[in-house]
Amino acid sequence: MIDVKKLNKSFGDNHVLKDIDEHISRGEKVVIVGPSGSGKSTFLRCLNLMEIPSSGDIFFEDKNITKTKGKQLNAMRQKMGMVFQHFNLFPHLTILDNITLAPIKLKLMSKKQAQEKAMQLLKRVGLVDKAKQYPNQLSGGQKQRIAIVRALAMNPQVMLFDEPTSALDPEMVGEVLDLMKQLAIDGMTMVVVTHEMGFAREVGSRVLFMDEGRIVEQNTPKEFFDSPQNPRLKDFLSKVL
Amino acid sequence: MEQILNWFNEKVLVWLEGIWNNFHRAFIEKGRYIAYIDGFKLTLFVSFFAVILGVIIGLIVAVLKYTSARNKRLKIFGMISNLYITIIRGTPVYVQLLIIYYVIFTSRGTSPLVVAIICFGVNSSAYVAEIIRAGIEAVDKGQMEAGKSLGLSGIQSMTSIVLPQAIKNILPALGNEFIVLIKETAIVGVIAVNDVTKAAQNVSGITYDLLTPLIITAVMYLVVVVLLTKLLGYFERRLAQGDRR
Ligand SMILES: Nc1ncnc2c1ncn2[C@@H]1O[C@H](COP(=O)(O)OP(=O)(O)O)[C@@H](O)[C@H]1O
Ligand SMILES: [Mg+2]
């Protein structure tokens, strides 16, 4: 579904991603872990071209998207939902308008359809009563669940998560991870950057370890956590587990 | 005691009476206050429409700068915008006013009022462009990204996500620009617009008292500026409250 070939990304002199080759199949739940600054976010953001690769190619559904621009680029992004560490809800809009803004603006649905769909999704995450409220009236966990719903309202083919629980108070991490688990069970293709090793072990179909701009090791969760090979990974796991 | 009272009567009261007489002659006699009030109306009129014009041109300049910074082929527009801002900010508005009046509108019956509005509007636009740019940049970058990640175009994200939030930063600064213009337009008398400062000069030409009309004018400016500043502060707090909803 997503094919990454020899991906490189530099910010000025800072060579952040180095020759990354990776393939993500439909239905996979790929979890990316690694020390801070290793390029996890940059890798994720290259997948929907929020960052423009310096070199290399990215294929989405067998189409090379690396050079797409304008309308095609926007259409491609509609199919990839993205969830941010800091939620990035729109503070000037109600929860309902946050969710329906893009589907309506992009004329994918009528206003009525979009609102019906949004209410359905809100029901699913148990936040129907928040529809008319503003983001600042919600807890962190609720905000992130709304951000996930907002992405889902576009019917994406794949969901990208960049440390979705890192900005949350500990008691709110669970509700967000539970929703992500639910998505995984429903068959969503997911790429998740996280420090939640429990989630990686339980939900991941594959875990990647990134270090200094390379994917230095990857395996099934069981192998990854029980018999790590790379010394850097052993070191990393000894610190986070 | 007697002496002090005498001194008071002779010096202080006489002095106060003199001030009152001057004030009476400069402001009340023959309904002269009407000239000041009409002048102040013109001052507000020029300032207000200059801000409006400034917003229109400033918005265009800001958009040109913003898009050219993100699109190499449009770089020339960014350079033109920067040149425009540099020239306007780098020359005295007094000189700009004279140039526009004498050179560009070779006094072919163009109303001086229109010239004043154009001059201050153009002048203001350079500052308004910066106000708008700063207002947009104060909005969290994640907002634009969230919009794009949903498949919205840059323009759609800008108009429906970033700008509505930037307005909260921009509006108070525009109010401030209006207040600044009220003071700066005091020079339009030079092209024969009878603003309040010019009205004061006209009066002093009749009464041969220069100081009193000018002080009256200064007090009028001060009162209006302080009131508008207070109003703006109140408005700003209301906007900030809206944020917390
Ligand atoms: N927009 C950017 N401009 C410049 N440098 C950046 C930018 N984004 C990330 N970097 C740099 O790229 C490196 C990797 O960052 P990032 O991908 O955020 O790592 P991680 O998500 O693993 O913590 C860091 O050195 C960071 O400073
Ligand atoms: Mg990161």
Question: How would you characterize the overall build of this protein?
Answer:
The complex is a heterodimer of chains A (241) and B (245). With 241 residues, chain A is of the alpha/beta class. Chain A is 39% helix and 25% strand. Chain A has nine helices and ten strands. Chain A has helices spanning 40-47, 70-78, 95-105, 111-124, 140-152, 170-185, 197-203, 221-226, 231-240, and strands spanning 2-11, 14-24, 29-33, 55-60, 63-64, 80-83, 158-162, 189-193, 206-211, 214-219. A six-stranded mixed beta sheet of chain A has the order 6-7-8-3-9-10, with helices on both faces. In chain A, strands 2-1-4-5 form a four-stranded antiparallel beta sheet, with helices on one face. The mean pLDDT of chain A is 96. Chain B is mostly helical. Helix content of chain B is 84%, strand content 0%. Chain B is built from nine helices and no strands. In chain B, helix 3 crosses helix 5 and helix 4 (93-104) crosses helix 5 (112-137). The longest helix of chain B has 38 residues, at 33-70. Chain B is elongated. The mean pLDDT of chain B is 90. The interface between A and B is medium-sized, with 29 and 20 residues. Bound molecules: adenosine-5'-diphosphate and magnesium ion. The site of adenosine-5'-diphosphate has 11 residues of chain A, from strand 2 and helix 1. The site of magnesium ion (MG) has 3 residues of chain A, from helix 1.
